[in-house]
Amino acid sequence: MTATPLVTLENVDKHFGELHVLRGINLAVERGEVVVVIGPSGSGKSTLCRTINRLETIDSGVITIDGVPLPEEGRGLARLRSDVGMVFQSFNLFAHKTVLQNVTIGPIKVRKKGKADAEKRALELLDRVGIANQANKYPAQLSGGQQQRVAIARALAMEPKVLMFDEPTSALDPEMVQEVLDVMTSLASEGMTMIVVTHEMGFARRAANRVVFMADGEIVEQASPDDFFDNPSSQRAKDFLSKIL
Ligand code: ADP
Ligand code: MG
After folding, report:
1. What residues make up the domain containing 76?
2. Mutate which of 13, 20, 21, 195 for ligand 1 pocket (most atoms within 8 A of beta carbon)
3. Quick one: what percent of the chain has pLDDT higher than 70?
4. Is 180 within the bounds of a domain?
5. What is the pLDDT of residues 1-27, one digit of tens each?
6. Is 37's pLDDT higher than 90?
7. What is the longest distance spanned by two Cα atoms in the chain?
8. Phi, psi (degrees; rounded to nearest 5) at 80
9. Residue 1 domain-assigned?
10. Rounded Cα gap, residues 103 and 200, in angstroms
11. Most-buried pick from 14, 32, 133, 143 (CB within 10 A)?
12. What molecular function does GO assign, one term (predicted)?
């Protein structure tokens, strides 16, 4: 018996009005796999991420999480959505809550965890991302890199089956990019299933099992990082790589 992929998209289409942003997307992400999604601005990468946890609806096709099709709404949707963690470019922390409260609020409110349990786990996770000593500060008192690490700890606190990152380092000052990539690399090596939209090609080469190249709402090609970067097969990928590498 082969294991079901953790996330699948089958023939997924999505329009924004006249704009056809996702065109017949087929993708299967295996357990423990790290898939890096790259492509030009406007190619549909963020929309793809947002459809996977139903921040956006789709027009047609099927998305499954751990073998279960994403329902349109209701309790089933809330449960499946909490299986999918998301880390955004713009941290999205609660400004009026401490770091610790940012990490415990989901487990307490959504997972119905006790406060003491949630705090114990949160401190472990903050330690894992290297900022346990900042637990009682407010987000504004932290650097961008630290805030993004809090956002990762917050996502992990929900015990997601898959973690999605949408350009998690794009809003950071250059000197803070590496500390966030290091946390992501260690999660990847620990077997976390991850879908990562990024322009950090070094990270893609080192940490990805597979690179998915999107352009104009389509998956144009996908390959191992070495194959993709050394020998892209499509002209669009060649053009894209020649601009960024
Ligand atoms: P990427 O993340 O690859 O840059 P996006 O998924 O953000 O691409 O956007 C894909 C296309 O969809 C772009 O042309 C963008 O302007 C458009 N788009 C994204 N979100 C919306 C929205 N909420 N309403 C209308 N158009 C949108
Ligand atoms: Mg985007």
Report:
1. 7-243
2. 21
3. 99
4. yes
5. 568 999 999 999 999 999 999 999 999
6. yes
7. 55
8. -65, -35
9. no
10. 26
11. 14
12. ATPase-coupled polar amino acid-transporter activity
- Pair 214, 48: CB distance under 8 Å: yes
- Helix 99-109 to helix 115-128 angle (10° resolution) is 130
pLDDT of res. 1: 53
Say how many CA atoms lie within 13 Å of 128 toward its Cβ.
Answer: 21
In a domain, 185, yes or no: yes
As a whole number of angstroms, the distance between CA 115 and CA 240 comes to 48
Q: Per-residue pLDDT tens for 166-192?
A: 999 999 999 999 999 999 999 999 999
Q: Domain tally for the chain? A: 1
State the residue for tokens 């960024």: 244
CATH code, domain with 134: 3.40.50.300
- Can you tell me the distance from the alpha carbon of 70 to that of 150, in angstroms, rounded to the nearest whole number? 28
Q: Which residue has the CA at smallest separation from atom 26 of ligand 1? A: 16
User: How far, in Å, is the centroid of ligand 2 from the Cα of 88?
Assistant: 10
- Residue closest via CA to ligand 1's atom 27 equals 16
Contact (CB, 8 A) for 211 and 19: no
- Comparing C-alpha atoms, which of 244, 210, 195, 189 is closest to residue 63? 195
Task: Give the count of beta carbons closer than 10 Å to the beta carbon of residue 189.
Answer: 11
Q: What counts of helices (H) and strands (E) characterise the chain? A: 9, 10
Calpha distance 87→116 (Å, rounded):
25
**Rg from Cα positions in the chain:** 18
What is the ipTM metric for this complex? 0.98
Residue 2 lies in a domain: no
Q: Which of 13, 14, 20, 46 to mutate to test the pocket of ligand 1 (most atoms within 8 A of CB)?
A: 46
Segment holding 28, helix H or strand E: strand 19-29
